[in-house]
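User: two proteins, same treatment. go.

Assistant:
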Amino acid sequence: MYRWASCLMPYSTRILVVRHWGRCPTAQVCLREILLVSLLHRFGEDISTSMTINLLSQYPMRTLSVRAHTVPTARMRRAATAVVFLLLMLSGLGSHSACAAPAGRLLLSEVLFNPTADGCDYVELYNPSDTACSTAPLRFARITAAGTIGRLYSLGVPRSVPPHDYLVLTTDAAWLLSHFPKADASKVVEVDALPAWPNERGCVALVAAADSLMVDRLDYTADMHHWALRNAKGIALERRSFTTATAERSNWASASATSGGGSPTLPNSQQWQALELFALQPSDLFSPDGDGHNDELHILPSDLVATAGTNITVFDLSGRRVRQLCRNARLGSNEPAVWDGHSEQGTLCPSGDYVLLIEVYDPYGHTHRERKAVHLITH
């Protein structure tokens, strides 16, 4: 179930303090540290280099960062083995498989924490795996002011979430379905209670019921909504990508107006991968030979980036920067970025394939990067 993911073991390594992220109350962590220090004290000399042990299981990666007194390599291996067994014994890691669906885990997808006066909070979960995931071993958790896990909240009657599908939990399913008429009622679960998620800032935490191990967590603030929104009440925060970390603020955005302020049970309206932000004209190749036909490459922005700052840089296939076409530019449909096939030094680039790195960001800090390939022909 466990294996070494990475282990830097020079002649001497230091182990003294263990950090077990997303796991237990402070008192239990301190107990682990004290026992670990006692265990390793007899190996001691001077403090030297460091080591990181990653333990993998069916839950998210657990990282144990440990320091210790200097010891020869052979003794260090014995000490490291003792550390692993001690942590397994103290934290009950061996039982994690009973808490997680073997096929994968559910991720936070969408959160409405500031509903309208007649509405209620909801949270959407997504199954990014290729097999079904059960909600049975999961709970929502209230995170205390001290950062520890408080009361746990049931996800209602256990449900199996199909691969690449959504499940929404709320305290008022009737309101949600009336407010979002496109929502699929079969994917909405009404629960007795949810943690209190304040309007200004809070934490949405999904944990394993058996041991409170963190499965997914979003620390949100009201200013994660789009900077142009005058009133974010009734607007959900949507996740843009399920391959980008939940904690990445730029991975969250206000639901689009056309979606009604949210897309519960449906693909998120703000998924970056669903957006075509730029188009090339001509679409594949151009030839700056002065014949009046496809002499320039035009990079045309969509209306979605009308108020966003844009950087566009041309690279060759070796990764060398060829030309910076624009920096922090506000592009419009009538003012596209243009590449005439010349380099930064003003010389005509040789024929071949080039890559455009396009970076788009708004004043809040939402960032999107995409790459487009183009073929240049010179004679």
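Protein 2:
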Amino acid sequence: MKIKFTGDLFSVFREVEPVRNIWASVAFIDKEGVDFLHETLNSEYRGRILASLSGYAAEPSALKTLLDLGFEVRVYSSTGYFHPKVYVVNEAKRLEEDILAVVGSSNLTAGGFKRNIEANIVLKGRKIDSPIKEVLNFLKGLWTSPVSQKLTDDLLSLYEDKWQEYKRKAGPLDLIKEKICDELLEAEPSVMDRVTESLSKRNLWLAVTSPENYRECVRLGLWGVERYKKVISQVKPRDLIVFYVKGDKMVKEVYEVYSSMFTSNEKVWTDKTYPYRLLIKPVFTGKEMDFRELAPELEFIKDPEDWGKFLQVEMRKLSRKDSRRIIEKLIKEGTRKST
């Protein structure tokens, strides 16, 4: 196996072009970066790109170009920041080895390809070589993850609307902070204003789950139900979810839905499959509140003395009044969540 260091990603592809098969997972994408990559491709190429819509790090025009060029594009959604820069070429005219893999700092951007000071390790070898095998397994794990979904025209359109809205509102410093920190929510009053104001335009859903499954939902950025397909199918991208955790008897955190309902039988929770799923991302985290303090003030709790029987569901849509009450109480009066 051959190993070398480079700061020039573009030259790596130039050395083996034309490339016929490329697979990449990157954090940032812009139109110029896609154009640079396209210059190195064979006319009959096959390409797969895994990106993230979190933090508005991918330009909608770049994603559209990838789709127009025939790339398979998937987007990864989780509570952690998506930050890999991995490229794999397994077919190119001047590639003598089975695989060329690049792991480093270069994104699929003009800066990542040509302009920035970057640092990358280039591997050339066989699929069975341990480092290359690990890179391939890493990409496969992300690509087939339950929190990875196909980028459709509808999803791209929704993302572009949000991206344009953010660009209009954010100043240059805000844009830099957004890309680096993925919407750090530091000022609680402004968070409450943003979230409660948005409730006039989207719904809040109560997700009922166990402590163990709640931890997996948060870790994976994923919510699922076993039987409530009709209910979960009504949830729309940009709707909000708040968790009620059984056993703890606590309301915890606010998440935004980032997909339409999809079906998967991959078992990621320990007790059941929960095949009807949504991708979610954090909006307000770190606080929780005893549900018993909220119960007397909520419309759907018809009998506060026997409030538990109204939570014998997997999820439910909340009224505008209940939604605002829960959000306001959680942000203003919630305690810091125990770890």
